[in-house]
Amino acid sequence: MLQAEDMEAPHPTAGSPMVPLPLESPTRSRSPSPSPPPRNPSPRTPSPPRSHSPGPSPSPRSNSPLPPPSPISPHSPSSQITSPEDPAVVSSGGSGRKMPQIKIKKQYSKIFRIKTKILQNLGKADKTTDDIFDEYENNFNKQQAHANRLQKEVANYLRCCRALHGASKGLYDCLGEVFEPEWVGHDLLYVQSQNSDMLWTDFCHKVQDQTLAPLTAYQLQFPEVRKKIDKRGRKLVDYDSQRHQLENLQRSARPDEYKIARAKDDLEKAKETYETLNKELYGELPELYDHRIGAVSNHVQSLCAAEATFLAESSKISIEMEAISDKLSKENAKGTYKIKRGVPVAPRPLSAITPTTPTQNPSIRPIISAPVNHPKEEIGRPYEDIEFEDKKVNGSAAPEPAPSVAQTNGDVIGTKTPPDSNKKASEEIYDIPVGATTEGLPAGVLYRVRATYKYTREDVDEISFEVGEIMQVCEYEDPEEQEEGWLCGIKETTNEKGLFPANFTRPI
Prior knowledge:
Residues 1-102, 348-368, 394-424 are annotated as: Disordered. InterPro entries: AH/BAR_dom_sf, Amphiphysin, BAR_dom, SH3-like_dom_sf, SH3_domain. It comes from Meganyctiphanes norvegica (Northern krill). The structure is a single chain. This protein is mainly alpha-helical and 508 residues long. Among the domains are: 131-333, Substrate Binding Domain Of Dnak, Chain:A, Domain 2 (Up-down Bundle), CATH 1.20.1270.60; 362-414, no CATH class; 423-508, SH3 type barrels (Roll), CATH 2.30.30.40. Helices cover 50% and strands 5% of the residues. The chain contains eleven helices and five strands, in the order αααααααααααβββββ. Mean pLDDT is 72; it is low at 1-97, 350-421 and 423-428.
């Protein structure tokens, strides 16, 4: 468009190159500052510059006899000169550098989209709706959510299988250590352990290669389609914005044909971009949604087939392990693996000369000391000497017959012991208190006592009793464990055996 001040500019002299005049603000006041370098420094014939400002208000027109120029789109490649009001040209810090036009265009596009959405939400601008596409988008969102969850669960299933593989391997390693080499089936156990390890490894590889990898590839196509859907939504907002702007220009009191023509051109471009994306998505979304059935069936089929094969082979290993254990049980029942039993060694009896605790009953001392006073030389005398002495004694008519060797040394040569010899041996070790009855007692019982005080046991080998309860005093299982002041006995009421203090009882 030709401006008034541009027509008044002086023509250049002949032979001088044409330098375009700097474009000024709408006030057209000239600045003494140097102008930026020209876009085309080659000489040309003088012609009035054209200004195609996409601003909201056009520059004032001059009453020029020249016809108005035809409307030219700002996106046309023929537009070489841009006015300072064009948002595509912005100085940064007065240095003369221009920001990229694409970046500025994106920023303005975002602003116009936000403005359009606000107007649509407030009801001041209409909105293009497509129910069919909305249904396609809802199906896509549901399909994407299902694919993401299926991929996540299969990956978790594979992780658990690998963990179970490690647990199975550890179990078989433990069984290999528990089964002793001489047991039946020890070699078969190692073979089954290796078979189980191979089955687990093969199963995990199949799940990874035949199920998880295809499922991941199926999932990766959704982000690309999502980008197209989002781009289609942005282009739809641009289309509504251009349509709304054209309607406002057409309804204005003083319509501007130039702006209307530009708005129509922008509307056609926005419509073409939107319809191209919309047409692509109308073909892709239904096809992708129908593909879900085959994809899910293939993934489940591959997973279940691998699992069925694994379980079938694993069951065979379990049957073999059961047979090995059953055979081992039968061999054990036969006594194949029983260890040899040894004969326990009897404890050494106490020597007859071992000093015992002094007793209060003086009548027992002769009985204990009687077998001790026999000299060893008398025990070891030959039979001839004894017979000779017997004859000598008989010849001299001794008033008192001497005891025979069998009678004197009955414990040494193994002659028959009198019935009360065990009781006498016990009396040699244990002191029988005065007043205790030793007649008519069960075997192994020395005497009986009655509790005079209540006692509560303080150890596991002791017994508790109340006042008046009766205990049968018996021998210690190991006489060397006898403790002074303690008795070993059996409580008659409960037949409980243990130790108890002697000073809490009195003999009966």
